[in-house]
Amino acid sequence: MTRFVLHRIGFYVLIAVLLAFFTVPLLWLASAPFTSDPTYQVRLPDFTSENFRAILDNPYALGSLWNSVVLAAGTAVLVVVFAALAAYALSRVRLPGRDALLYTLLLLSSIITGTAAMVPLFQLAVELHLIDSQLGLILIMTGGLLPAAIFMMKDFMDSTPKSYEESARVFGASPLQIVRHVVVPLVRPGLATIAVWAVANVWGNFLMPYLLLSDVEKQPAAVIMYTLYTEGGQANIKLLATFGLLYSVPVVLMYLFVSKKYGFRFHGGIKR
Asked: Which residues form the ABC transmembrane type-1 domain (predicted)?
């Protein structure tokens, strides 16, 4: 009995430590922007707005957030569209070595990351005149995310019944009409999951925009945040905390909206 009680106490202590480990940084992020003199400690805020006015005075802060939205939205749209079409084709067409191709793409996308392939990607961007171009950065990040997106999306496509498509085909629907009006409504949870996953990957990406975008007016928030330091390399806690809160809010709101509307389920829209 004593051993059981000690095990339960140890379990709850461990859970409390883990909760504190993840909760304290969030409490700091929520309180520091509203504190006139924030430190690395979590303190009750005095609800000042000076930090937000300081961020508004920064000529690149708000513009960088808009750049992040453009890059994340553009990449997410391309990833969702191309992944859905490729996954549908791989799900419905029996190709020799199809599964091996999928696992190979997933393996290569995991091993050859953007960091490892940075030199050839940079040379390719130079040859195609895509340096300092947001479109070029969107295309490069789309290519990096597509293999894993196709692999995940195929699971949703496999779980949708083919009888719906056959019925639409009998009534004369074209393949694109079948995809648009039959398949897409059934796999909307999968499309939402892929979109959120793509946005999260692009939103926090620092290396690619830092190397491919030299114009500070085109750089996203992940890169501009790096400039919120003093010349001596010390963090400007006021600006970093406030900008970090603004930087986090769009992704959190998107996640809550998509989770409430569709949920994150790794199966299609029809239960069989």
From this structure: 65-258
Listed as own residue / partner, the contacts of 222-227 with beta carbons closer than 8 Å and 24 or more positions apart are: 222/68, 222/247, 223/64, 224/60, 224/61, 224/64, 227/60
- Position 31 in a domain: no
Q: CATH no. for residue 149?
A: 1.10.3720.10
- Model confidence at 111, pLDDT cuts 50, 70, 90, reads low
- Domain of residue 119: give its range: 53-261
Structure tokens at 60: 């690149």
Residue 252 sits at φ, ψ, to 5 deg, of -65, -45
DSSP letter assigned to residue 54? H
Nearest to 166 by CA among 182, 180, 155: 182
Domain count, the chain: 1
Find out whether 216 and 267 touch, Cβ atoms under 8 Å: no
**Residues in Cβ contact with 233 at an 8 Å cutoff, skipping those fewer than 6 apart:** none
User: Tens digits of per-residue pLDDT, 141-164?
Assistant: 998 888 889 888 888 888 888 888
User: In this predicted structure, what is the pLDDT of residue 220?
Assistant: 94
| Backbone CA torsion sign across 8, 11, 15, 21 | positive
